[in-house]
Design a protein that fits this description.
- With 283 residues, the protein is an alpha+beta fold.
- It is 34% helix and 27% strand.
- The chain contains ten helices and twelve strands.
- The chain has helices at 60-72, 94-109, 116-124, 130-135, 170-176, 188-197, 200-206, 212-218, 221-231, 253-263, and strands at 2-16, 22-40, 45-49, 78-83, 138-142, 147-150, 158-162, 208-209, 236-239, 246-250, 270-274, 280-281.
- Strands 1, 2, 3, 4, 5, 6, 8 and 12 form an eight-stranded mixed β-sheet that branches. Strands 9-10-7-11 form a four-stranded antiparallel β-sheet, with helices on one face.
- α1 (60-72) packs parallel to α2 and α2 crosses α3 (116-124).
- The longest helix is centred in the middle third of the chain and has 16 residues, at 94-109.
Amino acid sequence: MQARAKVNLTVDVLRRRADGYHEVDLLMQSVSLCDTLRLREAEDLELTIEGALRPDPQNLILRAARLLAEDAGIAPRAKIALEKHVPVAAGLGGGSGDAAAALVGLNALWNLQYPPERLQALGARLGADVPFCIAGGCQRATGIGTDLAPVRSRLPLHLVILKPCEGLLTKEIFGALDLAKVSRHPDTAGAARAMEAGDVRSLIACMGNVLESVALERQPGIADALALLRGRGALHARMSGSGSAVFGLFDSWERAAETAVDLKRVYPECCAAQSVDVGVKFL
């Protein structure tokens, strides 16, 4: 099964909550870049990752499997193989997407028949992006990022996604954000309306990421990548999530694909991708 990555068309942070989390307003879109998970029945719980001999016991896939089994009152028994393609620590929801795919896939493998809403509630205990990765498509996310409202997008997106430098820790980027210094907030509601109307110009006018300036202070290479995407004809370029991955929006799939081939010589973790309407897809 495919665990799709996501990009953030908007990232707005409204305030810091008493519980330490931040109140956010996000517009997120699933994209065709994905990891692949293969699940089958087994006598125990086992995870193998292509290129990794010993997966971390705290890997989100294993945590998702244990959480789902505990909730269902059964033993966690499955053999899971992960083929990794989504860059890690990049703001693309790679780990969250893997956890989402594990919840959806094991729900089917174990014949639990949990509805999506129940899986999303469990996913929220693993990470704020997991419910979105289960729901997929285009969604406006509020609260701590787990309150979702679907957006019926009529605007196909053609993207070049690349990770230009080392990853960033989400907790550190949010912790360093000083809202008093934010001069411009994105218009998430306007971006959602633009997606529904199929209006790319309006979408671009509404896009933004208040975490971008914080990330740039730590990784100046992000700015270089954004400038390169714009110089190669991107209609708009932004950092996704808390970084360090960036994406450029292009006017056609052909232009995006050609650009990705060229930029891969400079940035090995680079690909073309399109918007998709589901976050987890069975193969």
